[in-house]
Amino acid sequence: MMDGGATSKEPVIAVIYHSGYGHTQRMAQAIAAGAGAELVAIDADGNLPQGGWNLLDAADAIIMGSPTYMGSVSWQFKKFADASSRPWYAQTWKDKLFSGFTSSAALNGDKSSTLNYLFTLAMQHGGIWVSQGIQPSNSKAAQRNDPNFLGSYSGAMSQSPSDASAGEMAPGDLETARAFGERVADVASRFRR
Ligand SMILES: Cc1cc2nc3c(=O)[nH]c(=O)nc-3n(C[C@H](O)[C@H](O)[C@H](O)COP(=O)(O)O)c2cc1C
């Protein structure tokens, strides 16, 4: 339902994302489950579904996601970003909370470049960025499915080998994504007080 939750006191949170092969979609679903958010999927032509723009306009927090393709967002996500020049022009998304997430094949894969782009887009809209806020699992004892094993601070990340399907994603990355969604919702509810 994309009614923007107008009658609720709970913050309205939207997860807007593009996914070519399903990995970023699974992250988006996990984040939305943690945040109690509405999903807005950018389609293969870079367009939003009916009601998508209205939901973003009504949202207190917008969490943006794209796969990392050639070190940045996909062209479909960039089409959405360019189309967001309409709310940018009127600064109607000013002071909303924003955050971001991405997936890649390589362990590093330049995912930070993608998150940096999402941050820049949020800043152009006059937004307030929410960090991932989950301590990294980076000790010798750390295991692949421990919280924030990829050690991201600026947003949520997942990594899957290039020949692994979305169904084979690391459960720890998805659980990290869910916990990240919870955090954004917590920050958003504090901002509404
Ligand atoms: C056109 C293209 C470019 C890619 N560029 C990168 C890259 O720069 N770094 C990387 O680690 N993986 C790269 N990948 C792999 C994807 O990031 C990875 O498969 C990701 O999980 C795909 O997410 P999706 O299923 O949501 O589309 C690329 C894949 C494609 C199709």
From TrEMBL:
Cofactor(s) this protein requires: FMN
Pfam families the UniProt entry points to: FMN_red
Transmembrane regions: none
Keywords tagged on the record: Flavoprotein, FMN
Family matches, as SUPFAM superfamilies: Flavoproteins
Keyword hit for Flavoprotein: yes
GO molecular function: electron transfer activity; FMN binding; NAD(P)H dehydrogenase (quinone) activity
Domain called Flavodoxin-like: residue spans: 13-158
Database matches in InterPro entries: Flavodoxin/NO_synth, Flavodoxin_CS, Flavoprotein-like_sf, FMN_Rdtase-like_dom
Cellular-component GO terms for this entry: membrane
Region (Disordered): 150-173
Superkingdom assignment: Bacteria
UniProt-listed PANTHER family: FLAVODOXIN-RELATED PROTEIN WRBA-RELATED, FLAVOPROTEIN-LIKE PROTEIN YCP4-RELATED
Protein name (database record): Flavoprotein WrbA
Species, as recorded: Polaromonas naphthalenivorans (strain CJ2)
